[in-house]
Write a structure and sequence with these properties.
heterodimer; A: about 100 residues; mainly alpha; 6 helices; flat; B: about 240 residues; 12 helices; disordered N terminus
Chain lengths: ~100, ~240
């Protein structure tokens, strides 16, 4: 195995530690305070919002239109329909405007 | 929602049905993430990695953004420990995922839990959280989705590594912007949770500020911490879920 393979293995171990680490720390406690529970329930919206928000900085009018329309579809439809709507708007605007 | 009531009143589904429901839930995830994996394979080979190393990264790390950072750093003869630290920093948000979802894995055997954490990617976490808020997560459903995504992720990396130069015009296909659209959909899926809008706004604004003033990848952890702190500070009695 070459040098790069070992670096990849170390990076994979570090990644696995992040994926199991939060649980290992939290499982040391017998009970979870209601405030901590509220914080844990906030994790999906809080983390995933940070994966979307910075893309607004690089987004032009076409990308913004795709986000707004797919966001509106998400209010009514499921994940698949909102995703297809957003992708379709993006591809159409990028190719025909 | 009628669909949720129907699932509850019809009782547990067969293991086979649960497995294929998991796979079905994985399809939009694969559609959104495959371009990213293809691109990773192509860029990895461009940056001097062998197709094997590219595939090996996807197989062992299984986290798109951190893999991209990894190949970027490989190209710059940077100290190995710094590469590992960078991958760790990009993936740090998973600490929050495992803290939140671990409560719902505890009825599984230890080996199933160990494997489940390996598969805990952003969309996998979001789907599991969504299901956990109304019922126990069946392991077979979780693994049906996770293994399906894992296989597709690796196949796409291999295709990208071997044939990456053949991708015609990624911009016209919108490939660079599919993930933000997909993640927006996931965020919207949690809109019935207590304090959803304030949390999303605080995290979003904080992550943009951190992106500008601290830099990537720390904007993810810092932004998330801002939103989570809000949920921690506001008294639980004041946090009401929407009906």
């Amino acid at each position: 195995m070459n040098h790069m393979t070992w670096v990849i293995i170390a990076a994979a171990v570090a990644t696995y530690l992040t994926r199991v680490g939060g649980h290992l720390v939290l499982s040391q406690f017998q009970t979870i305070h209601p405030r901590v529970e509220a914080a844990l329930n906030a994790v999906p919206a809080a983390v995933l919002a940070t994966l979307v928000a910075p893309s607004l900085l690089s987004a032009g009018p076409r990308e913004l239109a795709a986000l707004v329309i797919s966001g509106a579809v998400a209010l009514r439809g499921g994940l698949m329909s909102m995703f297809i709507a957003g992708a379709a708007v993006l591809v159409i605007l990028r190719n025909f405007t | 929602m009628p669909a949720e009531i129907a699932i509850q009143t019809h009782g547990p589904r067969s293991a086979r049905a649960e497995f294929f429901d998991g796979v079905r839930r994985g399809i939009p995830i694969v559609v959104a993430s495959s371009p990213f994996s293809l691109l990773f394979g192509a860029l990895a080979v461009d940056n001097g990695l062998s197709a094997f190393d590219a595939l090996f990264m996807s197989m062992t790390i299984f986290g798109g953004a951190s893999q991209m950072v990894g190949i970027e750093l490989f190209g710059h003869s940077i100290a190995p420990w710094l590469i590992v630290l960078s991958v760790f920093a990009v993936n740090f948000r998973h600490v929050l995922y495992s803290a939140a979802i671990g409560r719902h894995f505890s009825h599984w055997s230890i080996w199933r839990q160990a494997f489940a954490y390996f598969l805990l990617t952003d969309p996998q976490f979001a789907e599991a959280e969504t299901r956990a808020q109304r019922e126990k997560i069946p392991a077979i459903w979780y693994f049906g989705m996770g293994v399906f995504i894992y296989i597709c992720w690796n196949v796409a990396t291999l295709i990208g590594a071997l044939f990456g130069k053949l991708i015609p015009n990624p911009y016209a296909l919108g490939l660079d912007f599919l993930l933000p659209i997909y993640f927006l959909g996931i965020v919207m899926g949690f809109r019935k949770r207590p304090m959803w809008l304030p949390i999303v706004l605080v995290s979003g604004v904080a992550s943009i500020a951190a992106y500008k003033f601290v830099g990537s990848p720390w904007h993810v952890s810092l932004g998330a911490l801002a939103g989570i702190s809000l949920a921690l500070i506001v008294p639980p009695s004041a946090q009401k879920a929407k009906p």
